[in-house]
Amino acid sequence: MKNYLLDSLFINMLRLRAICPFSWRVFQFRTCSCKPLISQMITCTDEEQVFDLIEKNKAILSEKQVECAFNILWQFQKQKTSFLKNVDCIRDHPQFLTLHNLATSQMEFMNDDTLVNVLYITQQCATEAHDLVAALVIEAWRRLERFDINVLSKFSSCLAKQNLYFSPLMGKIADIVHRNLETIEDLRSLSVLMVSISSLISQRFQEQLVNKTENLFDTIDSSQVNVARRIVQFLRNIKYSYYPLLERCNKVFLSNMNHLDLDSISKILSLYHSLQFHSFEFVKTAKKRLAEMIPLFDHPDGFVKLFVALGPIAGPEEKKQLKSTLLLMSEELTRQQALAVMGAMEEMESRNSHLIKKYLKISVIPSEISILVYALSILPSSHLDEVGISRIEAILPQCDLNDLNGFATSVLRWIHYDRKCLDNTTGKQLKLLQKLDHFGLQRLRKCNNLNLLWEELKSLKGDWFAESLLEETAGTLHRLMEEINYKNVAEIASFISRTNYFSTLLLDRIASVVVQQSQKIHPYVILDIILPFSIFNYDPPQNDEFFRICIQYLNSYLSGLDPLMLVFLGYSLATLGYFPEDLLKAIFNIKFLAKMDSQLEFLCSSLNMKVQFRLMELNRAVCLECPEYQIPWFHDRFCQQQYNKDFGSMNGAQQQIYKMLAEVLGGTNCVKASVLTPYYHRIDFECILDKRKKALPYGSHNITLGKLPETHWESHTQITGSRLPPGAERIALEFLDSRAFCRNIPHLKGKSAMKKRQLEILGYRVIQIPHFEWNSMALSTKEARMDYLRERIFGKSKS
Prior knowledge:
The chain is mainly alpha-helical. Among the domains are: 353-469; 470-641; 648-704 and 722-794. It is 62% helix and 4% strand. It is built from 39 helices and four strands. Strands 1-2-3-4 form a four-stranded mixed sheet, with helices on both faces. The radius of gyration is 34 Å and the shape is elongated. The protein starts with a helix and ends in a 5-residue tail after the last helix. Mean pLDDT is 84; it is low at 1-34 and 701-713.
């Protein structure tokens, strides 16, 4: 009995050592000639000493001593760096078989905790011990109902390691969690279970787990990174970007960034990418931490993980370092490592022909081949031969929309650029394109689940999808429209914005979901929801209620939103004619603008410029449409720099219109081309009519056809109309190309509508000339076009 009590004491102290290794040093043990066996195991310094004890005492080892041996062997492994190599030395040791047999024979005497602990360690150390693992799992299944939450969570992770996510046993665990959810108070254990059972549970159960997690979140310490990571992983598994939890987890990650290793940062970035959750602060601090790790990894295993995590967010100097190191070890990469690198290089807009060509011929998975074919297509002088075409054709029935889109984009690029090879291969590429169309349409028509469809649609882009599948995709969305809810409404809205496809049915459904389920909509997604209404210049039937809810939610959360998001929100609302005072005051203050400037440094050049343009356009909109807010105009210098760079020449249609306007108005001195208005709107043509509808000359400003006049800068905020003769009017004529309209119908988009509104405030009568009218059969002759211009300007067809 005494020895049993001592063994139990040492077992508990061993567990304490695993949790608090530094505290272990304070314990001092008296040496004695007959140390209990567990105490002898604890004093071992390597695996050989443990195995030596097992060999000498195998006839008398108890189940507790067997567990202790497994524990100590596992602790040795965790302390070493070359994990896989050291596992072999355990698994292949003759005495490990002895330990294996002892565990098999004594498992029915093990308590629940010991049983599952031995299973867990066996899986970690001996991947080939299938019979022992199977026996332990069966024994655990027999006891399942009596497991406490900690043992149950550890057992579920053992099943997950065997990929038994859809097994009846995992289903039984899900049922136990569901029945006992109200009494569970340990979020660490619950988070493990949530990840394990996430593939089996209903949407209602998912929501219950999310609510329970929110209620328990404050019970965990702020250093519990693994718990936070598992919560994010659960949200990824159920495809639910639940922002309140994501933000709380993000705070945990940020507060522990100095302690996060490469593996943790890499996983978090990958999870955020899948959930489309953007945290500027996390990316900024992760980038700094990862950049510090570049010199530490000179082996492919670690370096590839670092390359994939850092590459897409790296600055020019870091990218240079990463590519240099990659070049040195490219021959050492495995197939999977090469594919991971290729995926990251695609995001970095970089490429490596050697890697692509080395792995294309051996890949068999559609997503892998799609990545490689796309990468190959953007290489200079590359060519898809018959072997490559055959390889693609063979896997088409297995492809999802994302894979099909990748192939089509690549093939279109080859057909477009490969003019020299108008041979049999190009003919086969055209046939391949037809097959891609067929399989894409077939896949859409068979789809009967909106969430599964979204998984395939969310990253689609390019001409092929827009030209070949967009109409069918819109039809599928209409068919599944009732499945749009608070969980996916922002995602569907974001997709509609990208497609430029105007559908009142879908937009009305989005607005209805927001109004009906407003309490479940997080402010973080309001931008995605508002964006299509802004882009398409559309007011839904529930217009007032819809925008009231959106603005109310924003106002309650202004301090929690990213500065860049606030700028885009302000611009989107301004496009629609909404100017929330609280939002504008939050944006137009020195502290906010300084914070935004600090973030711009970390953005790619295109996004950096887009943010600055949106801020300028918002500043202009507020000054013109809400002067009562007294927000100053501070973009003179920015506009002058940009317009000096962008001063170009007129396109063919503009040249035609300029010549005809000169004839209609009475000479080139009666029309100005490419005019900058106050607040830097650029208009294609300007003319002035006196009170008798006669064009007034401007003076000498002759220009060469196709060239635009030089601009002389001055203060650009004075309202134009104040300088006109009495009764005169200033006219702005704008040629609107296809970018000003929706893809599927000639509906004017928000940006052009806002420009017209603001030009009218500046004193212009605005005449917009749509491309589909100017290029129509009705205006196919010069005389018809001249009449068209006269009617638009003077209100009559003949002078």
